[in-house]
Automatic annotation (TrEMBL), chain A:
One Pfam family cited in the UniProt record for this chain: Fer4_5
4Fe-4S ferredoxin-type domain span: 276-305
Gene Ontology MF terms: 4 iron, 4 sulfur cluster binding; metal ion binding
Keyword 4Fe-4S tagged: yes
Organism, scientific name: Undibacter mobilis
Entry keyword annotation includes Iron: yes
Swiss-Prot/TrEMBL keywords: 4Fe-4S, Electron transport, Iron, Iron-sulfur, Membrane, Metal-binding, Transmembrane, Transmembrane helix, Transport
TM region positions: 51-69, 103-124, 177-195, 207-228, 361-379
Superkingdom as given in the UniProt entry: Bacteria
InterPro entries to which the protein is assigned, alphabetical: 4Fe4S_Fe-S-bd, 4Fe4S_Fe_S_CS, Cyt_c_oxidase_cbb3_FixG, Electron_Trans/Redox, FixG_C, Helical_ferredxn, Ig-like_fold
Full protein name: Cytochrome c oxidase accessory protein CcoG
PANTHER family: FERREDOXIN-TYPE PROTEIN NAPH
SUPFAM superfamilies in UniProt: 4Fe-4S ferredoxins
GO cellular component, one term: plasma membrane
Automatic annotation (TrEMBL), chain B:
Protein's UniProt name: Cbb3-type cytochrome c oxidase subunit
Cofactor note: Binds 2 heme C groups per subunit.
Record flagged with keyword Translocase: no
Cofactor(s) required, per the database record: heme c
Family according to the record: Belongs to the CcoP / FixP family.
Amino acid sequence: MTQLEELVRQSEVKAAPPPAPPGGDDIDEIPLYAARRKIYPQSVQGTFRRIKWIVLLVTLGIYYILPFVRWDRGPNAPSQAVLIDFPNRRFYFFFIELWPQEVYYLTGLLILAAIGLFLMNALAGRVWCGYLCPQTVWTDLYMAIERFTEGDRREHMKRESQPWTVETYARKGAKHFLWLMVAWWTGGAWVLYFADAPTLVKDLATGNAPFVAYAWIGILTVTTYTLAGHMREQVCLYMCPWPRIQAALTDEYALNVTYRYDRGEPRMSAKKAEQLKAQGERVGDCVDCLQCVHVCPTGIDIRQGSQLGCIQCGLCIDACNTIMAKLGRPRNLIAYDTDLNIKERLEGRPSTYKPIRWRTALYAAIIAVAGGIMIYTLATRGSEGISVIHDRNPMFVRLSDGSLRNGYTIRIVNKQLKSRDFVIAVDGLPSTLIDFVGLPPRADGRQLVAVGPDQTKEVRILVTDYSNTPPAASTSVLFSLIDVNSGEVAQVRDHFFGPEGK
Amino acid sequence: MAEEHKQIDALTGTATTGHEWDGLRELNTPLPRWWLWTFYLTIIWSIGYWVVYPAWPLVTNATQGLFGYHSRAAVVEDINALHAMRGPMMQQLATASTAEIAASPQLIDFARAQGRVAFADNCAPCHGAGGGGAKGYPNLNDDDWLWGGKLADIEQTIRYGVRSGNDKGHQGNMPPFKDVLKPAEMSSVADYVRSLSGLSTEAGVDLKAGQKVFADNCAVCHGDAGKGNREVGAPNLTDKIWLYGSDKATIVQGLQQGRGGVMPVWEGRLSEPAIKALAVYVYGFGGGEK
Ligand code: SF4
Ligand code: SF4
């Protein structure tokens, strides 16, 4: 064991002194509950803080403004760029319009989101938590409001520890008012995704909006205010499943916000460090200023090693770098790094970062395949669709002249914004005749089915096989839906059934 | 117990619960306060439920709750609301003729939907879920109708039934011939009948004899050419559809003991709209005649 390692070992224990058991010496008196330790995160400046501001502005900007973005789709469709139209069961996303039959795109999106999260995790731990998670983003905004109204950490703590004055109340009042405004607008923006935004805003203002709109705004106002204002890190610590899942998914190569104890320990005050250094002793770079702890939004001490409470926001890196700059010591005592690298360095090997590993390659491949399939199907899907359900009971009918007949229910989808006429053709049987139940036959023998703009129509058709050779138990047949004007075709395969072996 | 509780986890300094699994001990970490309060609130909430809703079983009854809420009453209310909503359409179904219903795009969709449910409840046990029929129970999808397949015919059959005892119901049956015909005659006429619809007969069978038996006994109802007679529900013997089966044994059995399936009367048992909806629905199976 090297001397350094020995030092580190000692310092590790020192870094995590066993806290006194709750309830003093008599440990039978464990409290029933733990009151929340209030956290007063200090403001901080630096690279990661700047990234967080940018992400916050972009994500919240998109969320609040997107419903008002217009997208011209012609007279029969809504002109909102992103709209979830429940009454008509459509989802609009810019140039993409999704029908209920196409919810598998949602499955695709969920797969992409999940694997994307895995990939992020394999590369850099819980970065999702630190920068993109809505809980983080809104909490960050709420903390900014808190600092604006009640002052930064020190001022805030001081004011709360002293007898409350009118000013204290006024500042707190202002904070909660601003919090509620943000919460209310958060709920308001949510409902705008489900209806024409400008109209709904007007209706909401004049009291004419449907009750559910108000209810949803109410629910989201309360949850935003509670979760971002009052629960904060407790959501990450107690409620969110992701830290548990990610702990199981991560590996030793993933970057995590790491206190480089190989460099930081033994920690001591700057003054003492000077003295010891003069005596030729080895000293660590950490001056135990606790800045990294004070800025942490979850209130943890990253120097105790990687832990569940860390959301990887990087703010402690910024804080420590500020200190290091002041002391003239090299930056990145805390950095995105891995414990493995620390070990490598302790053993005298250079640290490495391997972004390309089996795990990340596999995740990237899944993302590429799933994304590719989605893009391909989206790009090649037609504006008409046909689906066929074969009658189950009876599977087939024998007519009086001995020919066989099968019944099918056919659903025709017209995704265009104009009415269209279709004919249906059936291939695969020697000689067939198609009857449309309930539709009068036309003189020219062709049966046209008209489907309104952006609508579906269900028709029941009877397919009769007039050949004298009865088909085998099951014959594959091809249904073609043909637009008589444009000639576009949608096809689907199904079966024609007959009596087995007779 | 207290002894066990005194164990303190060396690494964290937290007391353990004293439970141990293969050397692993559970830390005794107190719950966050908000969590605990949420838990208490749910308990209080549940007590509120006991007071407001019927909850506690008593010997012969149960506590009634503050507002007299009753899930049965709620269902009745829902059903009444449904009837009120469907009322106008039902009224139209009751007054319009089946022909008028079939000609009206709104009415026919409504009627089909109603008919689907009524069919599943009342007709499917004999005729099958999709009207496919079974041995002795006609397939309603094919183009063979014993008593007529026009919309009005179907309505009539549903209303008054077949051999149902109702005056307006269809009458007539296939009598048993076991005391009338000799076994050899029955055998030869069965072969003849099979030949009528193009089914193969054994070599050396005397079809002429069968034809004679047929002309003497069967042609009264089934017609000289065996084409059947809808007045008495005599089936067409020249087509490929066999209600009871086309093998010789089945035909001979029919000759011996006769046939006469019964369709019950539905007028009075089903509502007026339901009967019409059923007629329209059955017609839509695809076997109906113009
Ligand atoms: S320890 Fe650092 S990275 Fe982790 S949550 Fe706290 S401030 Fe953010
Ligand atoms: S901010 Fe840096 S120097 Fe200060 S206590 Fe944290 S790790 Fe040590």
